[in-house]
Amino acid sequence: SLMSLPLCHPQLEGLCSFLQLSTCPEPFLVRFCSWLLPLTPDLSYTSAAILAEQLFLRRVLSLAQPPSRHLMAALTSFCSKYSHPFCRVLVAAVLQEPGEGAEQTKLMCELVEECLEPHSVHLVLSQVLEVPLSEKLLPVLQAVLGRQEVLPPELLDLLVLTLCQQAPAFAMSLNYAKLVTAVLTVYQSQVS
Question: Which residues does the UniProt record annotate as the domain Fanconi Anaemia group E protein C-terminal (predicted)?
Answer without folding.
Answer: 8-191
